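Budget justification note: compute hours in this period were largely spent on complex prediction jobs such as the one shown. Inputs:
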Amino acid sequence: MMSSRHALLAAGVVLSLGLAACGGGSNAATGSTKGSIKIWYSNNAEEVKWGDAVVAAWNQSHSSEQVTAEQIPAGKSSEEVIGAAITAGTTPCLIFNTAPAAVSQFQKQGGLVSLSSFSDGNSFIEGRTGDRASQYKSPNGSYYQMPWKSNPVMIFYNKDIFTKASIDATNPPLKTYDQFLSTAQAVVSKGGAKAAIWPSPTSEFYQPWFDFYPLFIAQSKGKQLIENGEPQFNSADGLAVANFWKQLYTKNLAPKEAAQGDSFATGQSAMAIVGPWAIPVYTGKVKWGVAPVPTKDGMDASAIHTFSDEKSIGMYSSCKNQGTAWEFLKFAVSKDSDGKLLDLTGQMPMRSDLASAYPSYFSAHPDYKLFADQAARSVEVPNVPNSVEMWQDFRAAYSKSVIFGSQGVDQAFKDAAAQIKTLVKS
Amino acid sequence: MAAAVRARAPRNRLRSLFGEHPIGYLFAAPFVLFLIGIYAYPFFYAIYMSFFDYFFSAPGAEVVRPFVGLGNYARVLQDPLFHIAIRNVVIFLVINVPLTVGLSMVLATALNSAIRFRTFFRAAYYVPYITASVAAVGIWLWLFSGFGLVDKLLGPLAPNPSFLINALLAMPIIALYVTWKGLGFYILVYLAALQTIPKELYEASKVDGASPIQSFFAVTVPGLRPATLLVIVTAVITGANFFTEPYLLTGGGGPENQSVSPVFLIYRFGIEQNHPGYAAAIGILLAIGVLLISGINRFVLERP
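Corresponding output:
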């Protein structure tokens, strides 16, 4: 048994450790401080090239405000890495891979700098992105993220499998739910595909962004999952989308188990639901075509909205030289830098003038034209408190009712809507 | 005389504080500091967090974390997901612990006797234990997924839905996987313990006419009792903390959260959703549960 003097010694050590851990300097940085900064960018090869080029261009003309760039540290997801870095106070000034769904959490943690606090913050963001910028405002009316680039989600299809299934591979019937379902049947029964489409059926909170959400946005003509605190998915449009997916699962056209590897790139699946970032991945492996996501009765492609799969740039509160960080941020999303991003990665800069700003790129790359057109009508995840928890709750209801069918869709969505309504208000 | 008494007084005080051999504290200090820093401090801090609506924040950020008393514990105890997680721990332990003890004891006894390819078998059982979980899970996914080898071999007898997305079979598969993966370690424990059983006992049982099976139950099993206690306690503690399997093997606790574990929920709530106060309450309840089970094990197994 521990004697009292030993207990006293132990308590002293624990207390001193506790006090040490509670300490931490306040962030005395202001928006005008200049000096060297560090940034993190994504670790995919194309973005690394872009990052290196932009940093080199900046450093050449800013000898006293040098930028050091590193790839974001490896982790299960960027959001977890950034969350941990905020807590430890080790975030760099800017992270070029901030997911909008995590912004409310990072903001609550005191990890983000309001870009609206810069005198030209709001005007710069809104001038570049236009009306879509409002989707990236936090509930307090300020911008804690710079909308950077989107990957509007569409349906990729394998032309070889479609041809084998005797389906027109140039203009496939994928507009309406009925057309999509009969095409799906054909590619599995005659095209030799294991699956018609294979979105990940696992339970991670972000999976709805690549099955339910793009189709819901399209069907509802651009609604978010939550608007003004009211869940929108528990509606005729939401239920139509859910029942469409449910049919795909019931008819075994979409597997209930996760694929081993990329099912579309390996030819296991005839279709995939993904953005233009995947073009370099599929090129050379699959003869692919692309079509807008389907709607119940079909819509003209020019009227279809879809999920943005956007990544933003966040400025983090540990940054000492916020003046330089803001100037570099504007440089990194300038017309030239955005052009380089488009050229090197094929991802769509969040510019309202996207198509007209880079006409030569789109005439040289006709495959990307459709994505640029869709980018203008891309819709974001709602910027609400407890965003990750909200998506997790929605995923649980969706898995139960749509993927595994152990509960009716109507009841599951009704229950989830009630739960989520409370959650986003707290 | 008085000066000598005064000089001795501080030494006596030191001795009363640190004992006869204060250098012992110096030797023990690195481990004690390690223990405090890595285990004790986080544990006590977790208890502290569990009484607050706690969340992680940036250093220096002004945030409000209201005191909620036992609120987190009350919510955890009413949470259906926590109920499923506890049920899963019970399913896991009921399958994993007897299998671990039984198989590792029998296999260790077999590997201790003069059989051919003994070294090969010893190494073969140990390989899964030292293989990275991600790689081992990959193999099991290849075996037990709907398009996997086992389903193909079973043909029409394969379960529908297949193993890893079957609400009834997902947890037993996880328990079997963990048993398979950890078996090599427990076999080693038993192999070491087998060396301590005097050979004379086997000779005596042989003289008394006992068959090899009778001698296994009359000599080996009682002789391995201390090792069995260690194996059970270790299997319970590591078993109750399973995480990698629902995370990787069943795609995030699937199907429909039917294979979530308490530690997986700690990760989901604490790290993904930034509610570490709630996650800490789950952790403390889990620690209490494991302590209770381990205490019962010791009480039952250490009785003469």
